[in-house]
């Protein structure tokens, strides 16, 4: 068996993304792509537990928001360097993953799903009642100047989030092709049977949940710098969780490519719709696209891509 | 062979992903280069990012309607300095995370001349991008949105005042202070959103200034449906003044619950958004009688600025013409000052005759007073009104539960400030009617 | 090697097992029989660890494993099959066998070697032609063979077989029994839950009979088959 | 705290709980019994509310009565929805996950549709009991919640009778638990789910009427309901109709008790904690089936 070339491609992709803002200057492209990248990374993270392990997380915005608030608090209020704040955001979200995981990952999947929904309400409620986090008034973020060679904060944000996205994809690729991914897929199919085959189901679920939470928090940790003003309703918006879930499903769960495809396609459609259809119907178009994908490609677009490629190869 | 096919697919898909990204980038660049053209030959473009859908559409849609009425009025009169007005509006779906990208699209792709947003949250998210572009931004009702960034080309046209959260509510306490016998104690009830909390912060300042005593300080989440317990709890503290900072659905819930548990303070009301919506007024009918709330404009004879009645008529015509989609047919809250903001901008552009030079235009705006459908306005360096003209109104003479019971003068009586006073406050609050 | 002491279990007030005692020596063949609903599968699940007991203890190779999780028991050498086959439906047959190889025997570094080990096990149970098939393409017999292959992949010292012969022709059953005898000769202890009396009586060295969660008889096949309690349980009153 | 205050908050919490139960019943059936996670259910409730508003305005009906009038049309709407769902997913053997995407899409389409059809602003209807209380001793109970409690409890009782006493009802319960029993009854799963989805949707019409009776409505408010409705269903033990009532009451009372002891600002946090605790300690719900 040949050695996989995917790592090479990922490295190439990474360098392209990081270098792009130095040569190509169009701020709108970076602002719009930032959100698409955000959704790709979140979907990839979601897929780790939801796709491979079959445990649906409806609290993506909780992990995202905890990462965002932790990082904002650290660099905005405590005035510590941003470079510390970003991983701290991921770590706090990972901690949330540990807490939710310990209480509900021993149960059937649907309870985990509801627990993540409840966790979203809980962390949002805590922020709303904590003046140090801005409560409902919100936090005004002091934006740092970008270091060279980036001329603009958004270019730096794009490049770093691009890096995080590629690293998430790489991690997801690694999980999928390692014994961890095998174990997760085994427990997704049949948890009891997997246990009797030696699969440490709880440990694997916890691992996937914490890693997934960490990545979501990491993505969230950049958000204060993008939005400049944080308030709990948009940060913990249920819409983020819905979007991530839908994107992963449309792309195809349980493969590392699925969330990338879903996030890229649906994320781009959303961005495009909001500037081409300048009325409330932009949401309807996105929803119609969702319906269409769900009905025409219930197994995800990745399946269609594979079929197409297989038939061309023959 | 359990990984091989996956790899072929992944390779292909990565390639597709890269191509999509590059094509999108190239397309964006191409579009950028074709649309760009010297500003003098093109219409004046006003870029708007507003809530046409989502929870805040009830503010965004009336606001955008007023902006479009202004554009039509201006174009009918020949435009500004010979340029027609073109409105480019994007819906942010009440999703703040969409705002920076949309603002940037307006700036660097659509190449608009001016930016408009509505509401504090979305305006605050637009500010860094807007300030980097150096363009003038009108943040309709975006009070305090400049707090994080202090941008000199930000203008907020609602008549709130230089210290927004204090000025928004100080009138309520100022006139409470003038009543006799003077009420002593206050109960705060504030919704957990940016408006409610800013309102409560301003209220707390005012309480210190005018020497009241806070006996209850309650907050509640926007999802609250039943306010009976909350109102019973507030009632048990027996305050002279109820100071409620609330949003549309909950304003109604609070008024209903206060009546149900028979909570009768001497002064009932506060910074309540919601009663101003006609459909809600109609549903509550006489229950609103005696309640005091703020307004920026009401159809009272004492505050009849030139043009405002015409604007309201046009607005009602649009609202009614949209048939089933009718939004707030009387629309006194958002339209007048959305229109006024653009009217101010139009006057500045004409008088300054410095289109294209935003620094000069901003300096001009800071240095002058403008006469609009919202009255005379001038701005602090922070972009807020230099003085406060928040009106406090009391619902009086409500005949029943219908839209007509609230239309026209005499139902929303201005009781403060004295300059615009159109009637006397019924004090103490006579108790719940209907 | 295996010792079950005073194990009881009830589901929502219904007693499934009461005070069960069971011993198994290394390389012993034990038959576990009883009418439907007598608690045989529950007992297997308690030994495998997928169901916890309310009272009592289970020890294996001299160690108390009552609170040890099922995957650790699998690593210690307890393998099992399910009464209704439970394949991992998204994976091919060979991948189903690779899972225990990876997780019990730690063969997750070299794909190709792991796969050839898995192929060997599949050919041992006569399933090598179906290695790349998905479980839903298999017949009942093939599914049972796959279950057996998965259990064998973990190199168990104790094999818990839940009706592994059900639905098989007598020829096929003999084939499986021969395989099990070979395994037994290699030192694997076997507990077999079975309805096919002929098979279980000839295969087992010792028989334990459960009825309504109570052990009503224990002994050699001939002793048990003449025990009046057993006859009453099977034939009824 | 004064005893009266605690009593009042428990009493109104109870009433609100009945209202929550009425909102959640549809999801109890679809999620708990037919395994169709209809996340668009709250949007259908608001569709019911808007249609009830139109009916009430046209014929001067009470909003709750309008909601009841809509029960039958909504039953057929549910049938249609299931037929589509069945064709698009179940019959093709696709997972219920793809179905979830369908419901998310439907949720957004419904919201946009309602906004363009009925306007983005708040709508409300005048009702003579809108802000009137029923005074019993020291208690003043809001009539709008008394009526919605009565309607909610009535719906729970009727549904419980339907599920336990009728052939179709028993078949619906069997569809969730025991496919074998279902085939012994001679019922086809698809037919049973057709009825169940109709019943689920019919409750949305009633819930819409109640929401309209309780307060103003706007097209995007359904999102605010989602968390609470799921919480009630899980607290009650998904699939249990009586449990849904208890779950609603537990949520309503705990929110109100939190309001008087900690402040209403914490009420959502406390109910989330209760939900998480129930999930961790008693995952089959407060009322075990």
Task: Explain briefly what this protein structure is.
The complex is a heterotetramer of chains A (314), B (434), C (237) and D (289). With 314 residues, chain A is an all-alpha fold.
Account of the 3D structure:
The complex is a heterotetramer of chains A (314), B (434), C (237) and D (289). Chain B contains 12 helices and 14 strands. Chain B is α/β, with parallel strands linked by helices. In chain B, the strands form 3 sheets. A 7-stranded mixed beta sheet of chain B has the order 7-6-8-9-10-13-14, covered by helices on one side. Chain C is built from 9 helices and 10 strands. Chain C has helices at 40-48, 70-76, 93-103, 111-124, 140-153, 170-185, 197-203, 221-225, 228-235, and strands at residues 2-11, 14-24, 29-33, 55-60, 63-64, 78-80, 158-162, 189-193, 206-211, 214-219. Chain D has one domain (3-120, 129-281): ABC transporter involved in vitamin B12 uptake, BtuC (Orthogonal Bundle). The longest helix of chain D has 31 residues, at 3-33. The radius of gyration of chain D is 19 Å and the shape is globular. The model of chain D has no long low-confidence stretch (mean pLDDT 89). Chains in contact: A-B, A-C, A-D, B-C, B-D.
The CATH homologous superfamily of the largest domain in chain B is called: Response regulator
Portion of residues within helices of chain A: over 70%
- N-to-C SSE string of chain A, H for helix and E for strand: HHHHHEHHHHEHHHHH
Poorly predicted ranges of chain A (pLDDT <50, ≥5 residues)? Answer: none
Name the helix and strand elements of chain B from N-terminus to C-terminus, one letter apiece: HEHEHEHEEHEHEHEHEHEHHHEEEE
Rounded to an integer, what's the Rg of chain A over CA atoms? Answer: 19 Å
**How many helical elements of chain A?**
14
The Rg value of chain B, from CA coordinates, equals 24 Å
Shape of chain A: globular
Main β-sheet of chain B: number of strands, strand sense, barrel status? 7 strands, mixed
Q: How widely separated are the two ends of chain B?
A: 79 Å
Strand numbers in spatial order across the main sheet of chain A = 1-2
Using CB atoms under 8 Å apart, which protein chain pair has the greatest interface?
Answer: A-B, 67 and 65 residues
Count of individual domains of chain B: 2
CATH fold-level label of the largest domain in chain B: Rossmann fold
Q: Classify the secondary structure makeup of chain B into a structural class.
A: alpha/beta
**What does the main sheet of chain A amount to?**
2 strands, antiparallel
């Amino acid at each position: 068996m040949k050695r996989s070339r995917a790592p090479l491609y990922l490295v190439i992709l990474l360098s392209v993304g990081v270098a792009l803002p130095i040569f190509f200057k169009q701020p709108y492209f970076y602002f719009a792509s930032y959100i698409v990248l955000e959704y790709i990374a979140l979907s990839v993270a979601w897929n780790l537990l939801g796709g491979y392990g079959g445990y649906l997380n409806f609290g993506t915005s909780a992990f995202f928001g905890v990462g965002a608030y932790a990082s904002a608090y650290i660099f905005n209020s405590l005035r510590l360097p941003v470079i510390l704040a970003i991983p701290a955001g991921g770590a706090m979200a990972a901690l949330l993953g540990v807490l939710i995981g310990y209480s509900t990952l021993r149960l059937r999947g649907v309870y985990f799903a509801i627990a993540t929904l409840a966790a979203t309400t809980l962390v949002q409620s805590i922020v709303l009642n904590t003046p140090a986090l801005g409560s409902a008034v919100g936090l005004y973020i002091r934006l740092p100047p970008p270091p060279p060679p980036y001329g603009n904060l958004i270019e730096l944000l794009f490049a770093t989030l691009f890096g995080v996205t590629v690293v998430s994809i790489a991690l997801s690729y690694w999980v999928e092709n390692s014994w961890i991914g095998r174990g997760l897929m085994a427990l997704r199919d049949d948890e009891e049977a997997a246990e009797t085959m030696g699969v440490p189901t709880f440990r694997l679920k916890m691992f996937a949940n914490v890693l997934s939470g960490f990545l979501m928090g990491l993505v969230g940790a950049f958000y204060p710098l993008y939005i400049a003003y944080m308030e709990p309703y948009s940060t913990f918006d249920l819409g983020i969780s819905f979007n991530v879930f839908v994107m992963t499903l449309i792309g195809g769960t349980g493969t590392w490519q699925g969330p990338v495809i879903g996030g890229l396609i649906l994320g781009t459609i959303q961005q495009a719709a909001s500037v081409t259809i300048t009325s409330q119907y932009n949401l309807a178009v996105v929803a119609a696209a969702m319906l269409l994908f769900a009905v025409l490609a219930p197994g995800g677009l990745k399946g269609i891509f594979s079929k197409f490629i297989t038939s061309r190869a023959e | 062979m359990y990984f091989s096919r996956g790899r072929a697919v992944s390779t292909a898909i990565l390639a597709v992903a890269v191509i999509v990204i590059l094509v999108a980038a190239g397309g964006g660049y191409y579009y950028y280069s074709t649309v760009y053209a010297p500003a003098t030959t093109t219409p004046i473009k006003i870029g708007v990012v507003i809530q046409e859908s989502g929870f805040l559409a009830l503010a965004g849609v009336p606001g955008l309607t007023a902006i479009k009425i202004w554009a039509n009025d201006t174009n009918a009169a020949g435009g500004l300095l010979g340029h027609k007005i073109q409105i480019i509006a994007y819906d942010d779906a009440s999703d703040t995370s969409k705002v920076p990208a949309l603002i940037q699209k307006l700036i660097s792709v659509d190449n608009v001349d001016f930016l408009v947003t509505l509401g504090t949250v979305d305006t605050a998210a637009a500010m860094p991008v807007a300030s980097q572009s150096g363009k003038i931004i009108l943040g309709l009702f975006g009070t305090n949105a400049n707090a994080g960034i202090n941008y000199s080309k930000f203008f907020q046209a609602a008549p709130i005042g230089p210290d927004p959260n204090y000025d928004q509510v100080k009138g309520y306490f100022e006139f409470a202070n003038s009543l006799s016998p003077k009420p002593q104690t206050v109960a705060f009830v504030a919704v957990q959103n940016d408006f409610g909390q800013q309102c409560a912060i301003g209220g707390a300042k005012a309480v210190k200034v005018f020497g009241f005593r806070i006996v209850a300080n309650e907050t509640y989440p926007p999802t609250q449906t039943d306010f009976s317990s909350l109102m019973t709890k507030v009632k048990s503290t027996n305050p002279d003044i109820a100071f409620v900072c609330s949003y549309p659905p909950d304003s109604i819930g609070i008024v209903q619950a206060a009546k149900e548990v028979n909570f009768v303070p001497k002064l009932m009301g506060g910074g309540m958004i919601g009663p101003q919506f006609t459909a809600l007024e109609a549903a509550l009918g006489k229950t609103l009688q005696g309640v005091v709330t703020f307004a920026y404009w009401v159809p009272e004879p004492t505050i009849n600025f030139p043009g405002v009645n015409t604007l309201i008529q046009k607005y009602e015509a649009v609202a009614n013409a949209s048939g089933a989609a009718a939004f707030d047919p009387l629309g006194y809250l958002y339209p007048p000052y959305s229109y006024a903001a653009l009217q101010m901008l139009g006057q500045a552009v004409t008088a300054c005759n410095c289109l294209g030079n935003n620094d000069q235009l901003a300096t001009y705006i800071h240095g002058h007073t403008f006469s609009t459908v919202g009255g005379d306005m001038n701005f602090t360096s922070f972009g807020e009104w230099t003085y406060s003209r928040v009106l406090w109104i009391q619902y009086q003479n409500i005949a029943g539960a219908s839209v007509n019971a609230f239309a026209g003068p005499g139902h929303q009586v201005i009781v403060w400030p004295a300059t615009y006073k159109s009637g006397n406050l019924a004090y103490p609050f006579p108790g719940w009617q209907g | 090697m295996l010792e079950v002491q005073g194990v009881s279990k009830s589901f929502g007030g219904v007693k499934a097992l009461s005070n069960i005692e069971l011993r198994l020596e290394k390389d012993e063949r034990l038959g576990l029989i009883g009418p439907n609903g007598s608690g045989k599968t529950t007992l297997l699940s308690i030994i495998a660890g997928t169901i916890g007991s309310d009272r009592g203890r289970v020890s294996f190779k001299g160690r108390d494993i009552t609170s040890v999780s099922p995957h650790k028991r699998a690593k210690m050498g307890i393998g099992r099959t399910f009464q209704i086959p439970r394949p991992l439906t998204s994976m091919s047959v060979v991948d189903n066998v690779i899972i225990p190889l990876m997780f019990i025997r730690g063969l997750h570094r070299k794909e190709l070697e792991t796969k050839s080990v898995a192929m060997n096990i599949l050919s041992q149970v006569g399933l090598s032609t179906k290695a790349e098939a998905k479980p839903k393409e298999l017949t009942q017999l093939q599914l049972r063979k796959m279950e057996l292959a998965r259990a064998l992949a973990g190199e168990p010292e104790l094999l818990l077989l839940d009706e592994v012969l059900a639905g098989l022709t007598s020829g096929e059953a003999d084939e499986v029994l021969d395989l099990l005898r070979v395994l037994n000769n290699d030192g694997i202890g076997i507990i077999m839950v079975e309805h096919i009396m002929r098979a279980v009586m000839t295969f087992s060295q010792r028989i334990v009979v459960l009825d309504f969660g109570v052990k009503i008889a224990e002994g050699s096949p001939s002793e048990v088959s003449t025990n009046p309690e057993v006859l009453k349980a099977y034939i009824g009153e | 705290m004064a005893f009266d205050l605690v009593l009042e908050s428990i009493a109104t919490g109870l009433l609100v709980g009945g209202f929550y139960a009425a909102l959640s019943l549809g999801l109890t059936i679809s999620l708990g019994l037919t395994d169709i996670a209809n996340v668009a259910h709250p949007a259908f409730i608001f569709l019911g509310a808007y249609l009830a508003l139109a009916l009430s305005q046209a014929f001067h009906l009470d909003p709750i009565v309008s909601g009841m009038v809509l029960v039958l049309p909504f039953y057929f709407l549910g049938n249609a929805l299931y037929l589509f769902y069945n064709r698009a997913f179940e019959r093709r053997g696709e997972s219920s996950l793809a179905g979830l995407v369908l419901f998310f899409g439907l949720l957004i389409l419904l919201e946009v549709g309602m906004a363009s059809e009925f306007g983005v602003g708040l709508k409300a209807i005048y009702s003579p009991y809108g802000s009137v209380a029923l005074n019993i001793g020291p208690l003043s109970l809001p009539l709008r919640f008394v009526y919605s409690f009565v309607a909610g409890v009535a719906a729970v009782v009727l549904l419980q009778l339907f599920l336990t006493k009728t052939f179709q009802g028993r078949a619906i319960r069997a569809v969730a638990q025991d496919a074998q029993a279902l085939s012994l009854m001679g019922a086809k799963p698809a037919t049973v789910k057709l009825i169940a989805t109709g019943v689920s949707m019919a409750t949305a019409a009633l819930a819409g009427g109640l929401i309209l009776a309780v307060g103003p409505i706007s097209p995007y408010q359904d999102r605010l309901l989602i968390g609470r409705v799921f919480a009630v269903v899980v607290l009650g033990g998904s699939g249990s109709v009586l449990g849904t009532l208890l779950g609603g009451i537990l949520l309503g009372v705990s929110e109100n008790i939190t309001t008087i002891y900690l402040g209403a600002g914490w009420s959502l946090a406390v109910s989330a904690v209760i939900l998480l605790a129930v999930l961790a300690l008693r995952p089959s719900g407060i009322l075990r089936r």
